[in-house]
Every structure is written in C-alpha cells, then in structure tokens.
Design brief:
By secondary structure, the chain is an alpha+beta fold. Helix content is 49%, strand content 12%. The strands form 4 sheets. Strands 9, 10, 11, 12, 13, 14, 15, 18 and 19 form a 9-stranded mixed sheet that branches. Strands 1, 2, 5, 6, 7 and 8 form a 6-stranded mixed sheet that branches. It has a two-stranded antiparallel ribbon with strand order 3-4. Helix 15 packs across helix 17 and helix 21 packs antiparallel against helix 22. About 2% of the residues have low confidence.
Amino acid sequence: MTFRSKAFEIAQGRVAPSLTPPAEKITDLYGSNTFSDDVMKTLLSAEAYTKISNAIRSGSTIDREVADEVSAAMKSWAVSKGATHYTHWFQPLTGTTAEKHDSFFDLTMDGKAVEKFKGSALVQQEPDASSFPSGGLRATFEARGYTGWDPSSPAFLMDNGAGGKTLCIPSVFISYTGEALDYKAPLLKSLVMLDKAATSVCQFFNRDVDKVTPTLGIEQEYFLVDKALYYARPDLLMAGRTVFGHSPARGQQLDDHYFGSISPRVNAFMVDFEFEALKLGIPVRTRHNEVAPGQFECAPTFEEVNLAIDHNALLMDLMQKVGDKHNFQVLFHEKPFAGINGSGKHNNWSLSTDTGINLLAPTSKPKENLRFLTFLMNVVKAVHDHADLLRASISSAGNEHRLGANEAPPSIVSVFLGNELTNMLEELVNKGEITLEKGENFYYKLGITRIPNLQRDNTDRNRTSPFCFTGNKFEYRAVGSSQNSASPMIVLNTIVANQLLEFKREMDERLAAGEEKKVATVEILKRYFTESKNILFEGNGYSEEWLEEAKRRGLSNIRETYDALHAYITEPTITVFERMGVLTSRELHARYEIELENYVKKLQIESRVIGDLALNHIVSTVVKYQFKLAQTARSLTDLEMLEEAAPIKEIIKDISTHIVIIKKLVHEMTEQRKTANNIEDLFERAKMYGSEVKGFFEEIRYHVDKLELLIDDEDWPLAKYREMLFLE
C-alpha cells in the first residue's frame, strides 16, 4: 500500500467527533474569555474605568497609574481563568499574527515566587524588530522594536491546547525610530482621520453628530482537507496550493455543493470553532457550504473596523487550531485547487454615527437622502481617483490566481451602484433634483397564498463587481482569503477621509461666498458624478465585452501583482497618505518592498516545489510504472500477441514523451530562477519571476496532469482531487 493510499484510508475512516454543547446559552458564552467592558466595570475603580472608557471612545492618553490598575485587574482576571502567561498579540507585515509569551511568574528579592504583571508590561513589550519584514526600515543589527497596547481592542485568553492559557493583549508594532512595522498602527491612524473627516461633513446636515465609526463585516471563505491527505501533498504543505492535480470527473459543475447540507464531520468542526470564537467575543453568525466542493464560508456580525480586523485575524488562527482537533487542515490560499472556485474575503464596509445613523443607507426624507448621496458620491469619487491604489491593496501571488478567473471580481476596479441609484444620479446631473424616495416597500407577488410576501431590496447584487453597493454598505469582494483585511481598509479609509476633507473644503468656500447649502451640495455632487461615472458598471464583470468597454473608458486593467504594487509609491499616493498622517513616504516604500519580496519568495517556493515534485515524486514513480508496462509488453510480444501489446507500447511512448518534456521544462525553469535570483533590482526580479519563472508552472502542470491519467491509480504518489475535495 502506498503512502497516499494509506492516507486516503485514514481519511475515509474519520467520523464526526461527539461534541458536548456548553451548558450556557451562546449569548452567555459570548465574550467569556475577553477582558470586556463589563469585566472592567466590575474590577476597576470608577475613576480608572472612566479614563479607560474615554481613551477607547476618544483616544485620550492613559497615564501609567491607570495602566497599573488595569494590569493588576487584568492579571487577577486572567489567572482566575487559568492563565499562566501574557503576550502582546500583534500583526506584523508577514500577513500572520505574532506573539511572545512571558510568564506571570517572578521572584522577589528573598527568593519567593510571586505572580507579577506591571502596568509597564501591559503598555509595552520589546520583540526583535530585525526578524520581521521591515522593507529596509531596520537593518539586521538594529534589533530593537516595540509593541504597544491598543486599549480599543479587548484583551482575550487563548487556550494553549496543552494546558494553561495565555492573556493576549492586542498591540501595535513599531520600530525603534517610530515607523509602523504592522497593519494595526496605520489602520488606527486611518480610522481617526476618517472619523474626523466624516464627522465634519456630517455637521453640514446634523450638528448632533460628534463621531463617525467605520464598520466592517468580513465574510471568510476557506477549504477543508483531511489532515492525512494534506500531509500526502507536499505542495499543499509547502506552498499552500496544489501545483499539480487533474480535475476530477465531477467538480462544481452540478452546483450542488453551494448552500447544500453540511456533512456531520464538517458541521462538528464548525460548531466547535464557533463556540470558541464566541468565547473570544467574535460574533460569528453565518455558516454554509460555498460553491466549490470542500469549500465553506463563515461570517460575523458587523463591528468597528479595528475590532473586526483583529477578530478576523484571530478567527483564522483559531480555525487552524480547532481544525487540528478534528483532523482537518484549513486552507486559506486564494486558489488551492485548479479548475474550481478560489476563496475570497468579502469586506462589507459602512459608516455609522454616534446618533445611530448609517450614512450609507438611503431614506424617504429628502434632506437625509442628500446626506446619503453626499457620502455615497464621495466614496465613489475616492475609489475612482485611487482605483490603482485600491487594486494594489489586494495584490498578492495567491490572489493573482483568482482575480478575473470567472469566479472572482476582475483586476479592473469598477463600482456597482445598481440601476436605481445610477438613474437617480443621472437625474441629479440632468435636472438638479433627487427623484428617489424609499416610499412603500415593494413586494413580490408569487401567486402562492401560503408564502408570505417577499420584500425586494432597492438594489440588486452584482457578484462580478469588485466594489459594489449592496443597499446600505459597500462590499469589497476582491480581497484575498489569506490576506489581512487591514491592508485594503487602510487604503479605503484613507482615500475616503481625504476625499471628504476635499468636499468640506469646497463646501466651506461656496458657503463663504454666500451660496445656499443645498445648492452648493448638489453642484459639487453633480461634478463628482460626471468626473467619476466611467468607473460605474452594472453588467457582467467577467465578460470579454467589459474588458473592451473598460479599455475604452480608460480604466486600468493591471493583471500582474508586481505592476499593481507600484501604486503604493506614486506621488499621488504618497501625497494623500502623508497629508492624512497615516503612512510616511518611507513607510510606503518599505511596504512596497515587503510586498514585492513576498511575491518573489512565494513564486520561488512554488517553483522549487514544482521541480522537486516533478522530478523526485512524479517522474521517478512514472519510470517504475513504465518499466512494469515494458515487461508486460515484452511478455505479450514473446507470446506473439502483437495486437495486445500495441496499445501498451503506445502508453509507454506517451509516458516517455511527457517525461522528456517535464525534465526539459523543469531544467529551463530552474535556470530562469537562478537568473532571476541574481537580479539586484527588486522590481525587475519580481517581474522576471512573474513573467518568466511563473510562465513554466502551467506548462509543467499540463504534462504532469496528463501522466496522472496514464498511471495506475494505486501507483500515483499524490493524493488526488477526488480524494481531497469529496471527503465527508
């Protein structure tokens, strides 16, 4: 029995583990492992609680005395729940999370053991900054960096799995010289600027608004593969995706997996990680089968953007840990399997005021609709003016496989508003009037009396649009499933804040000149619509016709990651980010370099995996099988059974042809990789990897996948798609 056969046998023998639901209601379970507002209110003095609340709400500074009281309360709470260590939990530019655990254990001067956690340890830790990506901001010998407590994101307890828990403190990560080395620091800055800009624009319509909070709901797609089969695929283990694998006879063509019945084993995994997520304050609500076999999705309730991104990063880590208990490997790669849908991370973004208003929700009141249109058009204008930057924010080696592949939004950034909103804006430009009123709800008349009336939304949904309006929010669908959502949200928050401040400047000038407020607002919005309408598209973003239409409109179609990333270091980008105080020119150049380096390393790894698998797994196995065929053909020939031997000889020839081509292509790919590695200019190196080295991947795959069809099933060394995707 081959290793693959044994792995498949183990996988098929798995059964859904029995789960004991928690005794509490899930609402009681929610946040039980977080240092929540209720916990703080119970454990802190009234003065300290007020200061912490003000810091979270308005960003005021927390003094060390208050930090000492919070740290004491936090330690007491954590230890009472079984914690032995604490860590600053942060999000470096690796795309994953990071943590360094320190024990509460300490010794006094007379040698007695005590549990200690000072305010200084809560506020700041010192990880090695030179060991994380810095894009040149830190040299190898410049090791010092700092993590700093973010009080706006609750501390939480993470089960270590082998006994004991760790108190995790969400934190920013900066260099010794103060530059941001993570996603959270610039995200927090962008949120502050968006709050200020949006609040200032709200003042034109409602002076009661003192704060605007961007909200986010992140839909997370993923694949599940049995752990045994995962380890039988070195490419999945090393590169996160299958570099070889012939499509099974049945894939997703029957559309029977989407929203289908969830298998007991998968459901047990989902229930388990949802319970654990709820304990950590992650408000998961939705679970379902996705389009591709073996693919699933979960989604939370909307939260403040910073918290939503922390929770998504934590959820991905949690899913891997819980998956391990269920003998599953969770795959977050954007395209782990060829020929079927890849995975995204749909970011549903909106703006809410402290008075309870969603600024992106239309109403039936003309004044409120003018406010809605103002924020809607400012978002559209920001996306239009910085489309290439928004495209750069979701660029990666993994997402490159997915974007535009008739399953995901194309690499052309367009905005979908829906016919009704688009027509309304046309009316605004042509007549200077807003004709849309929400009015009475529209219901479908089904003609089936037992079915309640179904209400129709004011806009359709367009799954082919990368940036679409869905009734009261914008959905950025192009984000990759493995990506930290902070990257696109930093960009979106910053460009919208910049645009809203520009709108305010224009309004102030017009009002100072004596223009009436409504007239001034409408005139500015009319111009914005005229300047931005070429980015609006209502049709099929997957179609060839759209590619031609977008080209006529002058919209960018940046297919390659190495080209897309350049938008980070253009003059307009640097100007906006520095004006908003979110990222400096130096920090932007550093991130550009980090992303290019990451792109090169991912393709380098994939190239090496392809070469190793092709020569040391596939070809070596195929040669042994070919030898068995040759012996059979020789025996038949010796028996003068020439007609029976002929097809076997043809198979031997076909195998030989594929082997020769594979060896030739692997050699040429390796030589191109060596050439690319010697290129000093990072962009040129990335370009050669993306255009030359990567160009061999599909060619080699074609011939390997052909061999999969020729080799006896028992002899094939790699777990096959039908085994991995249709596992119950």
